[in-house]
């Protein structure tokens, strides 16, 4: 009986350690990323749901291969709707994704960039950024391109595409990326400029397919919401 009790105790401790490790290795917590004020108003916002392929264009060197971008019906079954939209019963068109096909002509250290036709402004102070991706189990690396408050481009690494099926990939926005500057009157926040795939040189032959859906951010909107309604706007 004593041995059974000890075995159960050891198993419970091991399970607790595994749970703690999994939580530590999970998605970054937006409530703890770049906290620089006592008050926050965090909200999950969809930056783009990739509903219209005409709003995006692929860029890749012509001598590397041929690239095609198309729109497809579908999406990840595990994706949860944004809570505010569900509570307010807001009708949201969310039926499509975009897919990109690359047909390589030669091996090498190549890259592909998928950009919106114009940068997408993200209001508030962004904490984390997430994206649903079908990676097709390749060792290519996916990055997101943003620009800071002054328009300087930055790249954040989402991770390798070595998985099958849909996966939610998330990255924290480093506090060192400037998103607000009270000496200037521009709109606070960052801009989404595109997605970048850095191809693994050993796998740059044949064809490659990748799909994207629903780019979201957790952003702090406290400064925007708490502004007095009768305050003047410094945008003239």
Walk me through this protein's architecture:
This protein has three helices and twelve strands. It has a single domain, classed as Sandwich (Jelly Rolls), CATH 2.60.120.260. Helices cover 14% and strands 39% of the residues. The N and C termini lie far apart (79 Å). The chain is globular. By secondary structure, it is mainly beta. It has helices spanning 2-24, 83-87, 222-225, and strands at residues 42-48, 56-59, 65-73, 96-104, 111-116, 120-122, 125-134, 141-147, 153-160, 166-172, 190-198, 207-220. β8 and β9 (153-160) form a beta hairpin.
Give the secondary structure arrangement, pairings included.
Layout (H helix, E strand, L loop, with lengths): L1 H23 L17 E7 L7 E4 L5 E9 L9 H5 L8 E9 L6 E6 L3 E3 L2 E10 L6 E7 L5 E8 L5 E7 L17 E9 L8 E14 L1 H4 L11
Antiparallel strand pairs: 1-12, 2-5, 3-4, 4-12, 5-11, 6-11, 7-10, 7-12, 8-9, 8-11
Give the beta-strand count.
12
Number of domains: 1
Distance between the termini: 79 Å
CATH class: Mainly Beta
- Helix share of residues? 10-25%
The CATH topology name reads: Jelly Rolls
Q: Average the pLDDT over all residues and give the rounded result.
A: 87
SSE order, as H and E? HEEEHEEEEEEEEEH
Our Rg estimate from Cα atoms comes to: 21 Å
SS element count, helices: 3
Tell me which CATH architecture applies here.
Answer: Sandwich
For the largest beta-sheet, the strand count, sense and barrel status come to:
6 strands, antiparallel
Strand share of the residues? Answer: 35-45%
Structural class: mainly beta
Based on the structure, what is the oligomeric state of the protein chains?
A: single chain
């Amino acid at each position: 009986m004593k041995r059974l009790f000890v075995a159960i105790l050891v198993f419970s401790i091991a399970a607790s350690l595994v749970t703690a490790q999994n939580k530590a290795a999970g998605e970054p917590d937006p409530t703890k990323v770049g906290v620089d004020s006592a008050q926050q108003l965090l909200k999950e916002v969809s930056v783009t749901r990739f509903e219209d392929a005409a709003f995006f264009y692929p860029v890749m060197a012509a001598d590397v291969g041929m690239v095609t971008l198309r729109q497809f019906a579908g999406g990840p079954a595990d994706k949860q709707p944004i809570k505010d939209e569900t509570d307010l019963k807001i009708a949201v068109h969310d039926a499509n994704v975009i897919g990109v096909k690359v047909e390589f002509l030669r091996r090498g250290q190549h890259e592909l960039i998928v950009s919106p036709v114009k940068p997408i402004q993200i209001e508030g102070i962004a904490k984390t950024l997430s994206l649903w991706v079908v990676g097709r189990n390749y060792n290519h690396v996916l990055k997101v391109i943003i620009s800071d408050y002054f328009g300087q481009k930055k790249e954040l690494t989402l991770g390798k595409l070595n998985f099958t099926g849909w996966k939610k990939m998330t990255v924290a926005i480093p506090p060192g990326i400037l998103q607000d500057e009270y000496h200037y009157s521009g709109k606070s926040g960052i801009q989404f400029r595109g997605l970048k795939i850095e191809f693994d040189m050993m796998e740059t032959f044949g064809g490659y397919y990748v799909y994207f859906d629903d780019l979201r951010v957790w952003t702090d909107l406290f400064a925007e919401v708490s502004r007095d309604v009768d305050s003047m706007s410094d945008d003239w």
